[in-house]
């Protein structure tokens, strides 16, 4: 209290104030105040440190801010085991009369790093969170999902609260014991503070990344390599939600020989859609003065016919000496497609010799490993006569180098392997052949030209020695291989875990992706710089750089020799920025203090699973097989599928969607209807068929979102019987009995085409004799038959009635099947 009886700030202010602890002994009934008091953070940099703060308004010309007392609002901050209170000061500008709160970004950015680090609170519109909580979410590894962190916080808060309640009630119980004690009323302790949801934790996590976004981008764009790998995946694009949902088809990444990622972008298409990414990489190398890479490993587009330049080489035309090589595992997978099944007994015995036909081990490395293994077996009391049986694929890949055998030798050995397994020696115990001979011959004819694409580049060191291990008294070198794109396959496997939950809007998607890339590269920086691993584990570049600079000047040695400060971010497009440049959309404001960012971050659109989101181990090189293949080993080959999603656009001619939606939701006056076989529910089929037939005159090539929602609503009204997929009879015959020369008149490899044709041709004459198919398809054809009662024109070249019907039906089918919004929720027949 001041001289005038008002509350005033003391001169000797402190940053933290801690409440007094409960007394050891109580002679009167205790109050819960001391047992449940909270610490106080007084964030007043202007009063505490006398720093000079200027008005952020450019028109004020650097006018200094002055103190205007305490801010009227105190904030409650979530900590790892309790809630503490934070107050701040209000600063005003004498020129523009604007007020600023000391915890705003405009004020925090004017402080030096040492003082700014004292403010460890992340602010949101309603709550505040201590940075120690967010540190539990930063590493996207096993056991730190938002759900697990939330459960741990609730447990910590509950246990801390119960300990305080126990101490308070124990002290109160002392005043209830003994004769002659007067009745005492004790105040109840305050209720346990509610911990916010895990979705709110994710929103705060996003705010933390946004505050370090420029530093993260600078680290990513400061990565280089001499051997590059490029690969694409569709897994991560499924998590994109909001307005950008289904706009990205591929995520393409480029890595180096150390496993670091140079760039990772989302694209609406492959091929020409990657031209900007390639040109940005070439410019990055030129601006930094770094030697261009010597080799690029890909899974397709490695070579062209004759001496023409491939599209990939034209895309990287700034590096004319770049050698494009095919990933050997993808080449082996192509040759494995000639097998009848990967469950064949001889399948593993086919893949292992195929690897031996392509690679040969370094004789010196293999001899040293055999010697070490023999010494190890003797020390264990085992026989060392057959050392190769005890060598594992992990030991071979770790301590031995390999090289390709050359084009001529590889082709010769592969053809000998095919000849041996193509005959009776390729049959299993039941007589099933390993190869489909016709398909295998075709695959080898096509893939033979790629044998030269898998050869090691001449004069390029593909192995790097990263250390040594002692086995059996022998020092063995440890190698890291730069061949192939296996490291990118592993990165894409982990990339799906960087984005928590099953979906995220564009802003959250971008910040999660950039943070995951940054931490992935930092974990592999030690291997890139060939230095000893530091005990420091920090991913905040500006903090580590500031401490390193001061530490070196004061004490004369480097604190973290492996740390390399990044160059300035040059504006390269990463992640969703690249996609939005192609689609013409705009990425939301990345300013953490803007209202738009706060609103988007707190939308909580990420759906968090209840299970931990852990990483699996890095996948080993699949081309390294055991010295002796076990009969139970197998290798799965699964070709990937792809789909193309057409963007939605408005149509000029469309059914009355709004009225259909209102009618679909109104079931009060609905009348039941049956078909000619007395099956109920036909009124729902008729309404959906009427709406779909109305789409036949639509001029646009895709459905709008409103039309897709209407179709979805009408489909949900159908009975379960009408939702079943049409099952056509098998068309295979061991012996042909019809047609001239006992051959089908119109052969077709697509099941169900003949059945559909018979269904259409018999529509006008005998609709009751149609094959057993979905009532929706029947109703659509009946309506189209009524609309096309006669051809539109006569004479030579006139369209027949059935061609008009089929044209409209195919258009309706393409509109429905080609819409990802509809196809994602139903499976139409």
From TrEMBL:
Residues 629-664 are annotated as: Disordered. It comes from the Eukaryota. Residues 633-659 have a biased composition (Low complexity). Residues 3-210 form the DUF6729 domain. It comes from Crenichthys baileyi. This is DUF6729 domain-containing protein. InterPro entries: DUF6729.
């Amino acid at each position: 209290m001041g001289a005038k009886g008002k509350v005033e700030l003391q001169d000797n202010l402190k940053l933290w104030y801690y409440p007094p602890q409960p007394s050891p002994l109580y002679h009167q009934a205790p109050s819960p105040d001391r047992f449940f008091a909270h610490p106080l953070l007084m964030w007043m940099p202007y009063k505490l440190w006398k720093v000079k703060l200027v008005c952020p308004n450019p028109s004020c010309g650097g006018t200094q801010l002055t103190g205007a007392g305490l801010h009227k609002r105190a904030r409650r901050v979530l900590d790892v085991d309790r809630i503490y209170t934070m107050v701040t000061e209000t600063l005003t500008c004498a020129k523009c009369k604007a007020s600023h709160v000391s915890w705003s970004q405009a004020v925090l950015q004017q402080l030096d790093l040492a003082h700014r680090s004292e403010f460890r609170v992340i602010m949101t519109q309603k709550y505040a969170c201590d940075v120690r909580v967010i540190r539990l979410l930063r590493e996207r590894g096993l056991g730190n999902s938002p759900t697990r962190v939330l459960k741990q916080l609730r447990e910590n808060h509950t246990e801390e609260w119960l300990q305080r309640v126990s101490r308070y009630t124990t002290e109160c119980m002392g005043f209830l014991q003994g004769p002659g004690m007067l009745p005492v009323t004790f105040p109840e302790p305050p209720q346990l503070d509610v911990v916010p949801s895990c979705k709110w934790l994710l929103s705060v996590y996003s705010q933390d990344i946004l505050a370090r976004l420029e530093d993260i981008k600078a680290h990513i764009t400061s990565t280089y390599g001499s051997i590059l790998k490029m690969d694409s995946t569709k897994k991560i694009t499924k998590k994109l939600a909001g307005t950008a949902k289904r706009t990205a088809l591929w995520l393409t990444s480029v890595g180096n020989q150390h496993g670091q990622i140079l760039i990772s972008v989302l694209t609406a298409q492959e091929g020409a859609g990657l031209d900007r990414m390639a040109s940005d990489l070439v410019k990055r190398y030129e601006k930094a003065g770094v030697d261009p890479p010597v080799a690029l490993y890909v899974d397709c587009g490695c070579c062209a016919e004759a001496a023409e330049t491939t599209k990939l080489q034209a895309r990287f035309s700034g590096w004319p000496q770049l050698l494009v090589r095919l990933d050997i595992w993808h080449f082996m997978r192509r040759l494995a497609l000639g097998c009848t099944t990967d469950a064949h007994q001889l399948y593993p015995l086919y893949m292992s010799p195929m690897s031996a036909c392509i690679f040969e081990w370094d004789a010196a490395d293999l001899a040293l490993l055999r010697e070490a293994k023999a010494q190890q077996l003797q020390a264990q009391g085992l026989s060392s006569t057959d050392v190769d049986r005890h060598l594992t694929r992990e030991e071979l890949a770790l301590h031995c180098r390999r090289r390709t055998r050359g084009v001529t030798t590889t082709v010769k050995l592969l053809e000998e392997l095919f000849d041996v397994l193509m005959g009776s020696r390729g049959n299993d115990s039941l007589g099933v052949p390993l190869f489909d001979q016709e398909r295998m011959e075709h695959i080898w004819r096509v893939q033979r030209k790629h044998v030269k694409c898998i050869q090691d580049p001449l004069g390029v060191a593909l192995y790097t020695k990263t250390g040594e291990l002692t086995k059996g008294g022998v020092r063995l070198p440890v190698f890291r291989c730069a061949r192939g794109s296996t490291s990118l396959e592993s990165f894409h496997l982990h990339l799906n875990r960087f984005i928590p939950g099953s979906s995220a809007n564009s802003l959250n998607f971008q910040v999660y992706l950039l943070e995951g890339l940054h931490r992935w590269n930092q974990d592999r920086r030690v291997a890139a710089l060939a230095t000893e691993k530091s005990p420091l584990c920090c991913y905040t570049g500006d903090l580590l750089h500031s401490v390193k600079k001061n530490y070196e000047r004061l004490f004369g040695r480097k604190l973290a020799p492996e740390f390399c400060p990044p160059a300035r971010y040059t504006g390269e497009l990463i992640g969703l920025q690249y996609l939005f440049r192609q689609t013409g959309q705009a990425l939301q404001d990345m300013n953490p203090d803007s209202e738009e960012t706060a609103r988007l971050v707190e939308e909580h659109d990420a759906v968090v699973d209840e299970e931990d989101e852990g990483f699996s181990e890095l996948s080993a090189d699949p081309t390294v097989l055991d010295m002796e293949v076990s009969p139970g080993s197998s290798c799965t080959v699964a070709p990937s599928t792809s789909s193309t999603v057409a963007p939605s656009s408005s149509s000029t001619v469309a059914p009355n969607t709004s009225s259909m939606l209102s009618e679909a939701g109104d079931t009060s006056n609905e009348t039941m209807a049956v078909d000619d076989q007395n099956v109920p529910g036909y009124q729902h089929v008729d309404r959906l068929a009427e709406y779909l037939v109305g789409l036949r005159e639509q001029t646009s090539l895709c459905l709008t979102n409103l039309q897709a929602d209407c179709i979805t609503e009408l489909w949900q009204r159908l009975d379960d019987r009408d939702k079943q997929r049409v099952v056509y009879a098998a068309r295979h015959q061991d012996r042909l009995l019809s047609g001239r020369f006992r051959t089908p008149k119109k052969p077709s490899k697509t099941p169900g085409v003949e059945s559909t044709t018979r269904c259409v041709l018999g529509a006008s004459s005998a609709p009751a004799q149609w094959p057993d198919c979905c009532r929706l398809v029947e109703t659509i054809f009946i309506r189209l038959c009524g609309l096309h009662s006669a051809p539109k024109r006569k004479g030579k070249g006139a369209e027949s009635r059935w061609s008009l019907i089929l044209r409209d039906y195919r258009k309706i089918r393409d509109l429905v099947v080609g819409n990802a919004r509809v196809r994602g929720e139903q499976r139409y027949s």
